[in-house]
Amino acid sequence: MPTALDNLRVLDFSRVLAGPFATMLLADLGAVVTKVERPGTGDDTRSWGPPHDEHGQATYFQAANRNKDAIVLDLSDPRDRAEARRLALAADVVVENFRPGLMTEFGLGEEQLRPGNPGLIYCSITGFGRGAGARLPGYDLLVQALGGLMSITGDPAGEPQKVGVAVIDVFAGLFAATGILAALHHRTRTGEGQRIDVDLLSSLLAALVNQASSYTSAGVVPARMGNQHPSIAPYELLPCADGDLVLAVGNDRQFAGLCRVLGAPGLADDERFATNAARVGNRACLRAELVRLLADRRVAAWVEELTARRVPAGQVNDIAGAFALATELGLAPTVELPRTGGGTVTLPRNPINLSVTPPVYRSAPPDLPERARTSGTRHRGSRR
């Protein structure tokens, strides 16, 4: 099967999540990714458990490392640095997320590799850039706090909350992969490689989208609103007889449909609720009306009737329920990958559906190879 990134060689020095997630996306699209790991411990996330799968591998590591080879190199060892340099000079793409300046200390900086590999795409991922923030540690929780995301997440009467997954690393990984693909397109036209810099803080600020533009364009500093939306109503969780109903009413037609299902069509004509702007301005009164009308029926009954009327509604699933829903809808949310030595691991699939060069799933996340001195190289995880 042809792949979008056939024969693209990626040397991945990154660890934890943002960089490995970016390179996994490239590997899914056909790139040959070699993951460089430290002797003994490898990627930090190899020890981030529980949970572990039945073979003892940390599931956190599995989340961002399928379809890759692994090689163990000690970059403090001159012979290993020479091997790393040899691999980098033969690569199309190098990805790293060390503290700024460390790759240069190893002789593996972009400016040191460029003369020997003019077409190289060199992607550096940092927490806060290579300038004044270079010394700050780039951990997702810290960036969520410093970058404002926690200030808009959680109950307004409670403490700031982090999002339940390391979304900043995921954002940065997506931006990094996008930048790499753009640089590859430029190289195809010109033969010229380039450097890509992605930092977690800038990735978050860009991903704040409407919450960011409310500040940059209108001078409004957003605050925590729980599950409500600053610009749309009703767009929240509402209690029913046996649990919470999710309503995501995005326009007046949907609101009119909601009111008809609730047996209160007159609400749609009430001047307090007739337009989205009016509903936002009177959200407390609107919520009180909806809570009263929803109270006597079960969530599932409301969801069925509202969905039939094309009113966006649902219930809060746990992770198992979310995968079950995707399966029920025919979205095939998982893939099963072969492990070295037998057995398989099941992981979420890549959501990009390409009609001619779809993602490929060659191998499970690699085990950490033994470090061995054989002709100046180190053992690799086998490509399956």
TrEMBL record:
UniProt keyword terms in alphabetical order: Transferase
SUPFAM superfamilies: CoA-transferase family III (CaiB/BaiF)
Start and end residues of each stretch annotated as Disordered: 356-384
Taxonomy, superkingdom: Bacteria
GO molecular function terms noted in the UniProt entry: CoA-transferase activity
A Pfam family: CoA_transf_3
PANTHER family per UniProt: SUCCINATE--HYDROXYMETHYLGLUTARATE COA-TRANSFERASE
Designated name of the protein: CoA transferase
